[in-house]
C-alpha cells in the first residue's frame, strides 16, 4: 500500500536531520588547533581531507536523492515499509562516514596537545623515512602517528578496507604513550612500518611460498617450518625494524616483551606473534646476519639469564630447544629469499645498509660529538639507529638519550613545517629564493643544510 502522510513526514524529517548533521562534519583543517610543526604532512592532510570530502559529497547526494524519491510517483506509490527500508540503508551509510571520520579524528586531535603534538609530527617523519626503500620499489603512502593506552603498537595499513567500506588513504600507526621516552619508541614504530612495507612488497605471501617449499623438502623439520610460517607476518616486521635501526630495535623489543614468566614461554600457534622468549633470540639472529657483531650474542646470553628455562616441563623445554636450534636455517632462508617485487634482489641485499653496521654507527656518534651540526644532517631512521647503538655501547645515559631524541623529533617536525613543495606554491618559482626551494625537493640530508631553518642547538646531551 502507498505510505501514509505521517510516515512520509517522519522519514523526510529524519533525512533532513542527516543533512543538518552532515553540514557540521567540517574539514579537520577548520577545527583542529595545532601549531604548524605539530601538523601532519601535506600529503596525509590532503589524502584524508579529500577522502572524507568525497564521502560527505556522496552521502549528501544520496540524502537528496532519497528526499526527491519520496516526492516522485514511484515514491508515493511505495509502501511505508519500503520507504523505511531505504531510509535504514541510508542511515547505515551515514554512520559509516561518521565512523571513518572518528578514526582519523582520534589520530589528528592529539596534534593540539602541548609537546606531544610536535613529537608526534616528528614520529611521522621518522616513520616516513623508515618506509623508504632504495630503488623506488613502491610508492610509500602518507603516515600519521598517534598515541593510545596499552603496551603494544598497531597499524591500520594504507590501501586496506575501512570499517563500512572504502580504502584507507593513509597508514595510521598507534604507539603506546609509555614508549614515548628516548629512542625506544623507534623500535615499536618501525616494526609497524614494517607491516606496511611488507604489504607493499607482498612479502608475507612470497615468504610463505618459500617456507612451504622448504617444509616439503625437509620433512624431518616440518613442524619447525610450520611454526615459522604461522609467525611470518610478525617476523618480517621485526626484520624491517632491525634492518633500519640495528641493535636499537632489539633493545626496544626486549623492553616491550619483558613479561611475567608464564607469558614468556607460552607456545600458541593461533597467535601471529612468536613467543617472547624466542622472539628476542630470533631478532638477535637476524641482526647478527645483517650486521655481524659480538653484541648480538651478548644480548642473547643476557636474555637467557633474565629468563632461564628452569621450571619448564620437559616437553616445553624440548620444543624451545628445537626451535632455537633451527633458527640459523630459518634466518638464512628468510634473508636469501627473493621477493618478486624486489626484481631478483635478496632481502638481505635490499634491507641491509652499510651505515647501520655497529662500527659505522659508533663513528657517526663520535662525529656528533665533534660536530653537533652533523646531528641535524642525519636521516631520521639513521639517527635513531645511532642512538640505539650508543645505548647498547653504554656511551650515553638514559636522561641524555631522552633529551636528544626529543630534540630530534621537534627538529624534524619543524623542518617539515618550514619546507614547502614547489608545485603547491608555483609563484615562489619566480622569486630570488628559487635555489632554496629546489633544494627542498631533495632528500632529507641535503634538505637539512638549509640555513634558514637551521636551529642552533647546544647538544649537551651528546
Residue fraction in strands: under 5%
Low-confidence stretches: 422-462
Q: Oligomeric form of this entry? A: single chain
Helix percent band: 55-70%
Main sheet characteristics: 3 strands, mixed
Query: Ends: how far apart?
Result: 81 Å
Mean pLDDT: 84
Q: Could you give the count of β-strands?
A: 3
Keywords:
462 residues, mainly alpha, three-stranded mixed β-sheet, 21 helices, 63% helix, globular
Explain what you see.
This protein is mostly helical and 462 residues long. Among the domains are: 5-109; 354-453, no CATH class. The chain is 63% helix and 3% strand. It contains 21 helices and three strands. It has helices at residues 5-23, 28-31, 42-71, 73-77, 80-108, 116-130, 184-201, 203-217, 222-245, 247-256, 261-264, 276-290, 294-306, 314-336, 347-351, 358-370, 373-376, 380-392, 398-417, 434-439, 444-447, and strands at 143-148, 154-156, 171-176. The protein has a three-stranded mixed beta sheet, with helices on both faces. The longest helix has 30 residues, at 42-71.
The gist of it:
This protein is mainly alpha-helical and 462 residues long. It has helices at 5-23, 28-31, 42-71, 73-77, 80-108, 116-130, 184-201, 203-217, 222-245, 247-256, 261-264, 276-290, 294-306, 314-336, 347-351, 358-370, 373-376, 380-392, 398-417, 434-439, 444-447, and strands spanning 143-148, 154-156, 171-176.
Amino acid at each position: 500500500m502507498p505510505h501514509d502522510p505521517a510516515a512520509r513526514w517522519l522519514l523526510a524529517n529524519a533525512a533532513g536531520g542527516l543533512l543538518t548533521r552532515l553540514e557540521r562534519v567540517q574539514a579537520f583543517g577548520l577545527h583542529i588547533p595545532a601549531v604548524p610543526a605539530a601538523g601532519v604532512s601535506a600529503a596525509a592532510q590532503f589524502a584524508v581531507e579529500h577522502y572524507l570530502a568525497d564521502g560527505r559529497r556522496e552521502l549528501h547526494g544520496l540524502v537528496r536523492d532519497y528526499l526527491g524519491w519520496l516526492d516522485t510517483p514511484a515514491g508515493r506509490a511505495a509502501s511505508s515499509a519500503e520507504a523505511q527500508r531505504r531510509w535504514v540503508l541510508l542511515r547505515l551509510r551515514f554512520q559509516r562516514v561518521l565512523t571513518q571520520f572518528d578514526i582519523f579524528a582520534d589520530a589528528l586531535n592529539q596534534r593540539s596537545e602541548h609537546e606531544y603534538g610536535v613529537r608526534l609530527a616528528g614520529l611521522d617523519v621518522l616513520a616516513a623515512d623508515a618506509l623508504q626503500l632504495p630503488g623506488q620499489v613502491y610508492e610509500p603512502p602518507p603516515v600519521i602517528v598517534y598515541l593510545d593506552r596499552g603496551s603494544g603498537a598497531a597499524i591500520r595499513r594504507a590501501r586496506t578496507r575501512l570499517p563500512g567500506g572504502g580504502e584507507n588513504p593513509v597508514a595510521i600507526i598507534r604507539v603506546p604513550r609509555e614508549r614515548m621516552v628516548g629512542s625506544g619508541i623507534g623500535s615499536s614504530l618501525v616494526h609497524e612500518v614494517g607491516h606496511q612495507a611488507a604489504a607493499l612488497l607482498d612479502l608475507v605471501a612470497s615468504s610463505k611460498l618459500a617456507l612451504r617449499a622448504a617444509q616439503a623438502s625437509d620433512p624431518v623439520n616440518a613442524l619447525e617450518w610450520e611454526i615459522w610460517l604461522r609467525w611470518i607476518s610478525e617476523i618480517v616486521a621485526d626484520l624491517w625494524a632491525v634492518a633500519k635501526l640495528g641493535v636499537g630495535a632489539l633493545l626496544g623489543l626486549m623492553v616491550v616483551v619483558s613479561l611475567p614468566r608464564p607469558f614468556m614461554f607460552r607456545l600458541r600457534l593461533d597467535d601471529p606473534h612468536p613467543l617472547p622468549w624466542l622472539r628476542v633470540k630470533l631478532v638477535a639472529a637476524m641482526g647478527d646476519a645483517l650486521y655481524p657483531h659480538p653484541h648480538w650474542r651478548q644480548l642473547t646470553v643476557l636474555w637467557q639469564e633474565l629468563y632461564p628455562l628452569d621450571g619448564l616441563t620437559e616437553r616445553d623445554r624440548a620444543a624451545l630447544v628445537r626451535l632455537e636450534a633451527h633458527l640459523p636455517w630459518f634466518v638464512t632462508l628468510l634473508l636469501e629469499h627473493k621477493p618478486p617485487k624486489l626484481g631478483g634482489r635478496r632481502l638481505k641485499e635490499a634491507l641491509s645498509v652499510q651505515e647501520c653496521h655497529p662500527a659505522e654507527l659508533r663513528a657517526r656518534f663520535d662525529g656528533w660529538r665533534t660536530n653537533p651540526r652533523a646531528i641535524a644532517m642525519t636521516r631520521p631512521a639513521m639517527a635513531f639507529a645511532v642512538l640505539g647503538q650508543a645505548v647498547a655501547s653504554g656511551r650515553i645515559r638514559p636522561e641524555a638519550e631522552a633529551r636528544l631524541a626529543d630534540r630530534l623529533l621537534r627538529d624534524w617536525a619543524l623542518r617539515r613545517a618550514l619546507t614547502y613543495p614547489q608545485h603547491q606554491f608555483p609563484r615562489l618559482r619566480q622569486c630570488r629564493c628559487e635555489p632554496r626551494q629546489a633544494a627542498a625537493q631533495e632528500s632529507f640530508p641535503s634538505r637539512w643544510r638549509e640555513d634558514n631553518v637551521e636551529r642552533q642547538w647546544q647538544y649537551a646531551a651528546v
